[in-house]
């Protein structure tokens, strides 16, 4: 085996803690190919705490830093950084780390806006370093299986996909910054996962028509521990209520480049029955996907055959085969379900992201979710926001080129990615 890649974690909040568990999962597997040597966060306490956790989990305490420049100076042979900083800082933290010569694993969404995405992609291009984006949903074995069923023609040609999530009521979802326009609305922060799955299953989106809403004008503190309980240590600092400035619901129609259509609801202000529905329809059948990180089986419906469930689904996906590291972590190359709790599943998927980054660094191959793929996901989310502003369908090309940018322009001006009208930057 090559020398393990020497890696830092930049951003030691909730997701930083989850990433550390992913690294621990990888380090206890035969596929271990990277080693944590430093952690970095301007919030010194968060960095010190993560270093303590790393000591417990990995046996060695990484060096602690408050800024990346000092870290690169002081740590010998540092090759890569994982950037699970909050979304509004990706264009600063990831760009800076790339410019310092590090290969990067950046959390999704790649950046707060398309201009932010471009800044990071350009830094990767000019430094010649690898930029991989941590899009974990598609790595779920059940999503790999659905994609193989579609590719192998189990339901004929792709025609239509429904992706619906509704729930959340008026609770603060994980952290207040997820509810503010200038730091990342929840349909961007969470919805970008769904944008990735829509395009992973069906192909690149061509255009979209959408409406977006800010439905809950006040949100209150409820589940302060966050998914898997990872945010419990910050619970006491959570405000009792907030006044969101960012939209919390998007409703859209998508036309894909291959002619298929999509219907997408990502409503984080849903009351009553909570709904999570993901279905793909083709010219001879349909697939009901179980969703993400739950390991429930995929269901296949084929005209004149009926419902196909359980291991029989595999007969319709001959190409389905997990990569060796995924097969080792999830218990087989062609699994049709799994039975791990959320934290266990979460860390296995994160382990795969680290494994791929280190493999790419050693082999020079490109990661699955490059900057371009991740920017297309951000563009699909913003297509709905920009369409709402423009009151017409917009193409992904218009969004990616910033030809339509009325919604994002205000953010870019505020975060320094664009000079305010009439001013020089
Ligand atoms: N894939 C998933 O399932 C998933 C789940 C949750 C969060 N995320 C993503 O992870 C990212 C982080 O989310 P979170 O919930 O952990 O946020 P958080 O607010 O809990 O933590 C962010 C941390 O980044 C630090 N930080 C900010 N700027 C920095 C900089 N320039 N350098 C170093 N550190 C910096 C902050 O001090 C804080 O400690 C977001 O992009 C979010 O979308 C992904």
Topology:
Blueprint: E1 5-10, H1 14-27, E2 34-40, H2 44-58, E3 63-65, H3 68-74, E4 80-83, H4 90-99, E5 103-107, H5 114-127, E6 131-134, H6 141-151, E7 158-168, H7 186-189, H8 191-202, E8 205-213, E9 219-220, E10 241-242, E11 249-256, E12 261-270, E13 275-282, E14 285-288, E15 299-302, E16 306-308, H9 324-330, H10 342-363, H11 371-390, E17 394-395, H12 396-400, H13 406-414
Parallel strand pairs: 1-2, 1-4, 2-3, 4-5, 5-6, 7-12
Antiparallel strand pairs: 7-13, 8-11, 8-17, 9-10, 11-12, 13-14, 14-15, 15-16
Helix pairs in contact: 1-2, 1-10, 4-5, 5-11, 6-8, 8-11, 9-10
Nicotinamide-adenine-dinucleotide binds at residues 10-16, 40-43, 46, 84-87, 89, 92-93, 107-108, 134, 136, 174-175, 189.
Give the CATH class of the largest domain.
Alpha Beta
Number of helices: 13
Strand runs, count: 17
Average pLDDT taken over every residue? 96
Which assembly state applies to the chains in this document?
single chain
User: How many whole angstroms does the radius of gyration measure?
Assistant: 21 Å
| CATH level-four homologous superfamily name of the largest domain | Dihydrodipicolinate Reductase, domain 2
Outline, from the CA principal axes? Answer: globular
β-sheet strand percentage: 15-25%
Order of helices and strands: EHEHEHEHEHEHEHHEEEEEEEEEHHHEHH
Structure classification? alpha/beta
The CATH topology label of the largest domain is Dihydrodipicolinate Reductase, domain 2
Strand sequence of the main sheet, in spatial order?
Answer: 16-15-14-13-7-12-11-8-17
Low-confidence regions: none
Small molecules held by this entry = nicotinamide-adenine-dinucleotide
Number of domains: 2
Which bin fits the share of residues in helices?
Answer: 25-40%
**How is the main sheet built?**
9 strands, mixed
**N- to C-terminal distance:** 48 Å
CATH architecture group name of the largest domain? 2-Layer Sandwich
């Amino acid at each position: 085996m090559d020398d393990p890649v020497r890696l830092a974690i930049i951003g030691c909040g909730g997701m930083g803690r989850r990433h550390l568990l992913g690294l621990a999962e990888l380090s206890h597997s035969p596929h271990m190919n990277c080693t944590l040597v430093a952690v970095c966060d301007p919030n010194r306490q968060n960095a010190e705490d993560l270093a303590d956790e790393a000591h417990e989990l990995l046996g060695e305490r990484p060096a602690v830093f408050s800024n990346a420049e000092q870290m690169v100076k002081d740590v010998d042979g540092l090759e890569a950084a994982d950037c699970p900083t909050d979304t509004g800082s990706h264009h600063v933290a990831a760009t800076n780390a790339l410019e310092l010569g590090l290969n990067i694993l950046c959390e999704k969404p790649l950046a707060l806006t398309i201009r932010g995405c471009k800044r990071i992609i350009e830094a990767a291009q000019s430094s010649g370093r690898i930029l991989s984006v941590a899009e974990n949903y598609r790595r779920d074995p059940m999503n790999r299986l659905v994609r193989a069923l579609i590719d192998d023609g189990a339901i004929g040609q792709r025609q239509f996909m429904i992706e619906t999530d509704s729930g959340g009521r008026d609770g603060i979802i994980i952290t207040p910054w997820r509810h503010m326009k200038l730091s990342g609305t929840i349909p961007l922060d969470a919805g970008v996962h769904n944008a990735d799955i829509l395009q992973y299953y069906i192909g690149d989106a061509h255009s979209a028509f959408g409406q977006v809403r800010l439905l809950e004008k006040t949100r209150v503190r409820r589940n302060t521990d966050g998914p898997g309980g990872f945010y419990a240590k910050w619970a006491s600092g959570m405000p009792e209520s907030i006044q969101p400035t960012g939209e919390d619901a998007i409703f859209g129609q998508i036309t894909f480049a291959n002619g298929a259509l999509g219907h997408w609801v990502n409503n984080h202000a849903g009351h009553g029955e909570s709904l999570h529905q993901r279905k793909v329809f083709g010219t001879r059948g349909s697939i009901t996907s179980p969703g993400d990180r739950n390991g429930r089986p995929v269901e296949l419906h084929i005209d004149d055959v009926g419902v196909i469930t359980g291991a029989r689904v595999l007969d319709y996906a001959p190409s389905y085969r997990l990569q060796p590291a995924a097969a080792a972590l999830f218990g087989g190359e062609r699994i049709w379900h799994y039975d791990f709790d959320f934290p266990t599943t979460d860390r296995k998927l994160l382990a795969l992201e680290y494994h791929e980054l280190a493999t790419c660094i050693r082999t020079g191959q490109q990661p699955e979710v490059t900057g371009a793929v991740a920017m297309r996901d951000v563009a699909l989310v913003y297509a709905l926001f920009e369409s709402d502003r423009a009151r017409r369908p917009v193409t992904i090309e218009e969004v990616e080129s910033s030809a339509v940018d009325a919604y994002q322009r205000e953010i870019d001006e505020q975060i320094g990615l664009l000079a305010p009208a009439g001013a020089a930057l």
